[in-house]
Amino acid sequence: MFEYFFTALLAETNILDKTINYNIVEGNPLWRFGLVLLVLIITFAGGKTIQFLINSYARRIEKKQGDNILSITLKCLTGPLAVFVFAIGLHAARLCLVFDNPETETIEGISSTINNGWIRIAQAINALAIAYAIYRLVDVIEFYLLKLTGKTQTKLDDMLVPVVKKSLRITIAIVAVIFIIDNILEQDVKSILLGAGVGGIALALAAKETVANFFGSIAIFADRPFQIDDILKLDENTWATVLEVGFRSTRVRTFHGHVITIPNSDMANSRIENMSARPFIRRISNITITYDSGHSKAARAVEIIKDILEHTPEVNTDPFLPPRVYFNEFNDASLNIYMSYWVKPPDYWLSFEVSQRVNLEMMKRFEAEGIEFAFPTQTLYLKKDE
Fold first, then answer.
1. What DSSP assignment string belongs to 118-176?
2. Which helix (H) or strand (E) holds 83?
3. DSSP string, 362-386
4. What is the radius of gyration, based on Cα positions, of the chain?
5. Over 80: is that where the pLDDT of 4 sits?
């Protein structure tokens, strides 16, 4: 409909082409080329205007209602709509020019080969706009998946969502490229795919590390040794939180704030401690008091520590793992009291907060009882000659 109306409108201008002397280029007066440029500029500006208006409307919806299916869909379609409008502009701009008529074998304008190429390019951009829209609408699927995974207790689903998103987008991109090459550009896809298959074997041999990382990611998803936000102990001095598990690598953030990317083949084959999977967090301390405390104060110190741990809610009192407090050593400069307890739930930073409360209460009650903490000292006895 649009092309018919536009062609009819331009047909009226043929009278001007024949009666007025213009500079002719390939059978077309210069004003036609100017009209092509004007149509492209108008459609480009129109696409950007539509994109701006839809984005503004989507932001207003988000401001009132938060993230929802309508606002996400509108934001996903703004870019593809701009591309689609530009594709329409390419079709309209082609109608502004006069091309050869291959049926009558008369040379009236620009070569029909250029005309056919122009049509294919416009159709390819059209197809790209549709593929781009589907590619962006994967965000809508991600929105639904995140809502579903948010209802489950396990965080493994949260790791799968970005992987599913990337897989869908890669699939859409590959299908779009094959469709454009086969149906629009009319190239032999089978020979291209056959060549890609042979080259793929050589590439797989050269990129065996990438293949190993891919199978490592499968092993991680199958065994589920950790989840997102779990705290891992990678070696003696490196503790990190899991950020993301992808096809090739796992990203973690250390307690220093650095982000480390570890190949999945290494993650699957390494000995990694999942600190978040433990049921309790154990705290061990050696409390030292002075030798001047004597038997009674040493026994009293043990009783005080046991009482503090018994009345701390987060300290586990299960018969299997009760708090342990013993006067166990005579050190060189102190009497040693061994203290061990387990904090539940196994929150890493909660264990530090519990430890602080226990230590402060211990200092307060030792001070009240007159029990002194020991520190390294030496006593020298000087013997005077008679």
1. HHHHHHHHHHHHHHHHHHHTHHHHHHHHHHHHTTSS-SHHHHHHHHHHHHHHHHHHHHH
2. helix 69-94
3. HHHHHHHHTPPBP-------PPPP-
4. 38
5. no
Q: How far is CA 311 from CA 287, 308, 325, in A?
A: 19, 5, 14
Angle, CA 148 vertex, CA 146 and CA 154 arms, to 5° = 90
- CA–CA separation, 243 vs 175, rounded Å? 30
Residue type, 317: T
- What gap in Å lies between CA 264 and CA 218, rounded to an integer? 9
Q: Identify the DSSP state of 345.
A: S
Mean pLDDT, range 181-201, rounded to an integer = 64
Peptide bond into 345 cis (omega under 30): yes
User: In sequence order, what are the residues at sequence separation of 6 or more whose Cβ sits closer than 8 angstroms to the Cβ of residue 227?
Assistant: 154, 155, 156, 158, 159, 242, 276
Per-residue pLDDT, 355 = 93
State both tokens at 369: 């009882």
Q: Which pLDDT band, with edges at 50, 70 and 90, does 359 fall under?
A: very high
> Helices 348-369 & 294-310, crossing angle to 10 degrees?
140
Nearest to 339 by CA among 363, 320, 350, 355: 355
C-alpha span between 377 and 290 (Å, rounded): 10
Contact of 339 with 286, CB cutoff 8 Å: yes
Nearest by Cα to 301 from 337, 333, 260, 332: 337
Residue 52 reports pLDDT greater than 70? yes
Token pair, residue 248, equals 């090739």
81 CB-contact burial (10 Å; exposed 0-12 / middle 13-18 / buried 19+): middle
Q: For the stretch 166-198, what's the b/e string if a residue is b when 16 or more beta carbons lie within 10 angstroms of its beta carbon?
A: eebeeebeeebeebbbeebeeeebeeeeeeeee
- DSSP-derived 3-state class of residue 57: helix
Tokens for 99, please give them: 């091309």
Name the average pLDDT for the chain.
79
- pLDDT over 90 at 304, yes or no: yes
Instruction: Identify the three-state secondary structure at position 207.
Output: coil
pLDDT exceeds cutoff 50 at 115: yes
What is 273-337 written as a DSSP string?
EEGGG-S-EEEEEEEEE-GGGHHHHHHHHHHHHHHHHHT-TTB---TTS--EEEEEEE-SSSEEE
* Contact call for residues 69 and 145 (beta carbons, < 8 A): no
Count of CB atoms situated within 10 Å of the CB of 138: 18
